[in-house]
From TrEMBL, chain B:
The keyword ATP-binding appears for this protein: yes
Family: Belongs to the ABC transporter superfamily.
InterPro entries reported in the protein's UniProt record: AAA+_ATPase, ABC_transporter-like_ATP-bd, ABC_transporter-like_CS, ABC_transporter_ATP-binding, DrrA1/2-like_C, P-loop_NTPase
Organism name: Synechococcus lacustris str. Tous
Name of this protein: Lysozyme
MF terms in GO: ATP binding; ATP hydrolysis activity
């Protein structure tokens, strides 16, 4: 009885807080649109840049566009999740958070949970839009189980990045600083991954960076899914430190996001207590 | 209904609260009076579980707020000083969100929102977005969200700052109605007339300490004597005022002679005796001492005199002094999580 009341109250407050975020999005859809437009431009421009590269130059044997697709999809979800902390930061700055904190919330983690729900749906919608655009451009579509692999991988990455962004939103002094961090982190992480080029094209040091970059762990299984070559035990990444299978990549992402959520807990409970 | 016991709070090297204790009985409208920077907001934030005191005890409606903050929050409605609203939501949506945070059922939420809409006269604009609201509307919406869960205790931090006279009167009305219905209300203010008109009891807070406590009538009565405001000129210079101050200090039955900078260097003092007889004698003494008189006013003690007596300065002077020493950046940091 007690537990069921607790769960009912927890879901009531979490749903109400998420509803607010979705209403904001509905009435101010610019974040949604910009989050689709930017990767779309990447997809079109970068795809065109190497349109005349010889077939088979890139791993997988298709056009550059087919190679690029997976990278841009991951970039879309990554950028969306990186912004997860912004609404929380604004609530801190404008005092709305205090309004939430004087209420007898069952758990203050419902504030965090609502952000995670919101940003996960937002980033999946944006990623699906980019996937549709890539399909329209002739860069392929992951059929059947491939689609599940793509969405599952994106979820793991989004969870990790959301945790990081929420931690920053509570640790940094204001939104200017948060935006600065997002700005600085965003593109370098894209370039130091296998989104735009395979490791075999990179100098040794960059190859190392790319093989340690979590984005790469998300890109490679998705790329395999796009190429119709996905299998958990298939090698998807020839890293300088050894070959990684799709299962290993996904496991790394899982460990990373779980680890991040565990390690930001003390910060969150301090800031929300 | 509300008990604060020996609450202390320091920010870095600054003592915001220095062991204050307050006791607010059930159904009382209690005023916390003091200039900016006296520690009112800090006290209220501690009371509302937004801030942990360095030491002390907080009990709200029988609930120990430090041991069971969630239980205490259930009993509390808090109307903060800076109204935090979400501009893109309508007032109704904001109230619905608030209702869910207090775990009201959908039916109960509708009923309470309808009741408060009528009480606070919000129906014309409640479905418009908050971004378009005037200051008075925002304050009413904030009051509604503080009252939504029908709390036993309502806490308001400077509720009428920046309000037009009509909105202020309307707010006072509502607060008085609530008190009649048995809600315990604690409000902070730096407006003397507000606390004098509204509060059943009050505490005067200055530099983190309670310097006086009681009903307005008690506090004034304790002071005794009549207050005199003497102006030798409409706007006297400080030097001139000092000379007159010395002259007045030499008179019989006169005490606490102060220069009131906020009133064009008027001289404030207290005469022991009461009534018109006393003033007549004073007038003769002033003539004899060759003190020029532009105006001479006599009054029973006011709450400002209570403050003046305890701190040696008027509330207005303290306000003026606080304005320039305020640090908005530090204040924001204190308010932010």
């Amino acid at each position: 009885m007690f537990a069921s009341t607790a769960i009912a109250e927890l879901s009531q407050e979490t749903l109400a807080l998420s509803k607010r975020l979705f209403l904001q999005l509905q009435r101010r859809p610019s974040t949604l649109v910009a989050g689709i437009l930017q990767p779309l431009i990447w997809l079109v421009l970068f795809g065109a840049l190497f349109a005349k590269a010889p077939m088979g130059l890139f791993p997988g044997g298709g056009s550059y566009g087919k190679f690029l697709g997976a990278g841009v999809i991951v970039f879309t979800a990554f950028s969306a999740a990186l912004n997860a902390g912004l609404p929380v930061m604004f609530d801190r700055e404008f005092g709305f958070l205090n309004r939430l904190l004087v209420a007898p919330l069952r758990s203050r983690y419902s504030i965090v949970l609502a952000s995670v729900l919101y940003i996960t749906s937002l980033s999946l919608v944006q990623s699906l839009a980019i996937m549709a655009a890539a399909w329209g451009l002739g860069y392929g579509w992951p059929g059947g189980t491939g689609l599940l692999v793509v969405l599952g991988t994106l979820l793991l990455l989004v969870a990790a990045v959301t945790a990081l962004s929420l931690a920053l939103a509570f640790a940094l002094p204001g939104h200017i600083e948060l935006i600065a961090v997002i700005f600085v982190a965003n593109l370098p992480l894209l370039f130091a991954s296998t989104a735009l080029a395979p490791i075999s094209y990179m100098p040794g040091w960059l190859g190392w960076l790319a093989s340690l970059n979590p984005l790469t762990f998300a890109i490679e299984p998705i790329r395999a899914a796009y190429l119709g070559q996905f299998a958990f035990d298939a090698v998807v990444l020839e890293a300088p430190y050894g070959a990684l299978t799709a299962a290993q990549c996904l496991l790394l992402l899982l460990v990373l996001s779980a680890g991040l959520f565990v390690s930001i807990r003390p910060l969150l409970s301090r800031k929300l207590s | 209904m509300i008990t604060l016991e020996h609450i202390s709070k320091r920010y870095g090297g600054i003592t915001a609260l220095d062991g204050i204790s307050l006791e607010v009985p059930k159904g009382c409208l209690y005023g916390l009076l003091g200039p900016n920077g006296a520690g009112k907001t800090t006290a209220l934030r501690i009371l509302c579980t937004l801030l942990a005191p360095d030491q002390g005890r907080v009990v709200i409606a029988g609930v120990d707020a430090l041991a069971d903050p969630r239980g205490a929050r259930q009993q509390l409605g808090y109307v903060a000083q800076e109204v935090a609203i979400d501009k893109i939501l309508s007032g109704r949506e904001l109230l619905e969100l608030q209702a869910s945070l207090y775990h009201l059922s959908a039916a109960r939420a509708r009923e309470r929102i309808a009741m408060l809409t009528a009480l606070l006269g919000m129906d014309e604009w409640l479905d418009r977005r908050c971004g378009s609201y005037s200051g008075g509307m925002r304050r009413r919406l904030d009051l509604a969200s503080g009252l939504l869960h029908n709390p036993a205790v309502l806490v308001l931090d400077e509720p009428t700052v920046g309000l037009d006279i009509e909105s202020r009167a309307a707010l006072w009305d509502v607060l008085q109605q609530l008190r009649e219905q048995g809600t315990t209300i604690l409000l902070s203010s730096h407006y003397l007339e507000e606390v004098d008109a509204l509060a059943d009891r009050l505490a005067i807070l200055d530099r983190g300490s309670v310097i006086a406590e009681g009903t307005p009538a008690e506090l004034k009565r304790e002071l005794g004597g009549d207050r005199i405001t003497l102006r030798v000129r409409e706007f006297a210079s400080h030097d001139e005022a000092q000379k007159v101050q010395q002259l007045v200090q030499g008179l019989k039955g006169v005490s606490q002679v102060l220069i009131n900078r906020a009133q064009g260097h008027a001289i404030n003092f207290v005469i022991e005796a009461e009534g018109s007889e006393a003033l007549l004698q004073l007038r003769q003494q002033l003539d004899a001492a060759e003190v020029p008189v532009f105006s001479l006013a006599q009054s029973r003690p006011s709450l400002d005199d209570v403050y003046l007596q305890a701190t040696g300065r008027t509330l207005m002077d303290a306000e003026l002094a606080a304005v320039s020493s305020r640090d908005p950046k530090a204040e924001k940091k204190q308010a932010m999580r």
